[in-house]
Design brief:
about 130 residues, 4-stranded antiparallel β-sheet, 1 helix
Length: about 130
Amino acid sequence: QVQLVESGGGLVQAGGSLRLSCAASGRSFSGYFMGWFRQAPGKEREFVAAISKSGGSTNYADSVKGRFTISRDNAKNTVYLQMNSLKPEDTAIYYCGAAAVWNFIMASMKDNYDYWGQGTQVTVSS
């Protein structure tokens, strides 16, 4: 069992930065791919970024590539999402998830995730 708690969301102006954190409980954190997804009002939950179990590999949605960075610290059971050059279209609730998968194709699909956090709101003003 893994419990996830996100933090770090807030209101920021376009061009600004935020760093999201997701703290996990449980001893098996390093056994999961970790991902960040987001959901805007009236839209489906969409993939943002994922990171491999060791943290050695990452994958990003085209819409955030070059602006967002996912990382993890397995000693602290925490995954991060550094978001730079934020745009109004990045406004959404951001969720972290844990997936018992073995490649990034699977990690980009929300239905493959076993555990989710409660989400944190990110609002980017123009």
